[in-house]
Amino acid sequence: MTESIKNLVSINGVSGNEKNVCEYIKSQILSYSDKVYTDVLGNLVAVKRGGGKRIMLMAHTDQIGIVCTFVDEKGFIRVSSVGGVDPHNFNNCHVAFENGIKGVFVCEKKDGKIQDCYVDIGSCSRDETLSKIDIGMTAKFDCGFYDNENVIVSGALDDRLGCYILMETLKKMKATDNEVYFVFSSQEEVGLRGAKVSGFDINPDIAIAVDVTIAADTPGCDDYGCKLGGGAGIKVRDSSAICNKALVDELENIAAERQIPYQRDVLTAGGTDIGAVQMCGRGVIVGGVSVAVRNVHTGAETAAKKDIRAAVELLCAYLEKEVENRQ
């Protein structure tokens, strides 16, 4: 588990620049799939053929980051955010541009906005910086990785954890009568864009997003929501979608039958790819399987290994069963 997730989070995949992430995933899943393809918006799709319901499992490949918008005369790079970047969470953090050039992200003001931030790559002039960095080039926050017997800590667990869970589910799932689409979606962090295209293209009967959710168990949090180590999160709703009750009940029943630890995920802020897919065509039954993560959208996102394993077990168990298109 650890090595595969470490490989995933090490790849630069800021929204719109997910190609290398998809290439790595494709190299790991090709032999387990009946068909693998990439669509116009950069979604990677792996298919397990069957004659039953079309089930779409989604995890997004992109991560938050920054984009170069201007270089001043001294060579400092002004930036804009890609996705939900809070400068307070990344002040003086290392960044890595998509071409490998590294620098330091600095916020000039204590409570500054993104327009108060710059990246220092050690240049002394505008020309020197522009010889290395192009306007419009993205960079990821490069804050390191570590794990112990219980947790994994890294940036980009949102949502490379979901990608890992889909990869493992594809590898471990038993034969199914349904047609299952594993969608590694693009540009989720900037508006669920890849999911909208993939949902229209596949037209699934059921869609399940596999993503992180906010762990509400740290000091200062109210005592509600998902907890680190509490098991797979079964999504009830978030700000983008209300999940199908029959699907929620089915996932909970499966978890109880298989003795898979689980908890209910009610996310009051933030959404997932199902928000874009549920309104495709005549409508899609949607649900979610989540992993509770502390410090979301920082360089030290923290997840419990037991929750990751539980999510894989739950999805495999769900795909084994005969799936009905319930209203």
Summarize this entry quickly.
By secondary structure, the chain is of the alpha+beta class.
If you average the pLDDT, what whole number results? Answer: 94
Using the CA coordinates, give the radius of gyration.
20 Å
Question: With helices defined by DSSP (H or I, 4 residues minimum), what is the helix count?
Answer: 8
Please, what is the oligomeric state?
single chain
Strand portion, in percent?
A: 25-35%
Please, could you describe this protein's structure?
- The chain is globular.
- The model has no long low-confidence stretch (mean pLDDT 94).
- α1 (2-10) crosses α4 (157-172).
- The protein is built from 8 helices and 17 strands.
- The protein has 2 domains: 2-63 and 155-320, Aminopeptidase; 66-141, Peptidase M42, domain 2 (Elongation Factor Tu (Ef-tu), domain 3, Beta Barrel).
- With 327 residues, the chain is an alpha+beta fold.
- It has helices at 2-10, 19-29, 126-130, 157-172, 193-202, 245-258, 274-277, 305-320, and strands at 35-38, 44-48, 54-60, 65-71, 77-82, 93-97, 102-107, 117-120, 138-141, 145-147, 151-154, 179-185, 206-214, 232-237, 262-266, 285-294, 301-304.
- The strands form 2 sheets. Strands 1, 2, 3, 10, 11, 12, 13, 14, 15, 16 and 17 form an 11-stranded mixed β-sheet that branches. The protein has a 6-stranded antiparallel beta barrel with strand order 4-5-8-7-6-9.
- A hairpin with a 5-residue loop joins β1 and β2.
